[in-house]
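(Deposited chain)
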Amino acid sequence: MTSDAAATRRHDETGDGRTVGEVAAAVGVTVRTLHHWDAVGLARPSARTSAGYRLYTGPDVARLRRVVAYRELGVSLEHIPGLLDAPADDAVATLRRERTLLGERIAALQRTAAALDRLVDARERGLLLSPAEQVAIFGESWQPSWAREARERWGETAQWAQYAERSADRTPDDWRRVAAEVASLDEALAAACRDGVPPGSERAHVLAERHRASIGTYFDCSHAMHVCLGRTYTDDPGFRAHYDALAPGLAAWLRAAVEDNAREHGVDPATASWPGSHAPSEISADDGDTHHRAPGGSPSP
């Protein structure tokens, strides 16, 4: 006869207690949990078989049910003995403390849920701004539909995921700062082009890095990816029109500056490629123009 069977037989014959397995099933926990509670002194069986197997008496089971009830309320194991054994006033104080902690956990979970809701919304919409806010921040030429169209084209890319994650954390004031930085950068690029700054000069390298960092506002942009984006500035009519409107020839100048800067960082522009299968160079003239740009004038992924 097995040890568990022997313990059960004694229980059946004497009725002086219930086995660990029986009690675990009765109160809805595992045998391992009962062993742990026994080891830490939280709820110990007060009877044993002649062979030394644990047996729980009626009061033992009642205590276990109280432990389970407090655990279901989220009370930590270290505080439960104080609730089981302490005077009423002390128990109330412990319960109030647990209620305060529970409120803090609820608030934290609500913040997490709200953040997840924003992330889901950002993955679907790109921009968590109303159409009126978008136009007010990005200018009268901005079309709110561009974000939706970019989502339809690039929504499965890693870059869109990063764009959405960063967008989810941004407020309208954050976007105003982004737009202001892009406007300032555009002015600096246009001035360098008008001044005849050579694309491979130190000033051009600084501006190219500043431009790459601006794209990094939306998603991580390596030098190779920057080169791929730079190709669209001359190849895509919309991008060319955008930059050449700031200064004649700026689109070609910026592409050259980006490629020279990439060489300085060990990237051959001739072989630079975009990770994955959604390269910006795949944009065709039939796809339109500025709707491929992210807020503030930088390209969308």
About this structure: Confidence is low (pLDDT under 50) at residues 10-14, 281-292. The longest strand covers residues 47-48. Residues 88-125 form the longest helix (38 residues). The beta strands are 47-48, 54-55.
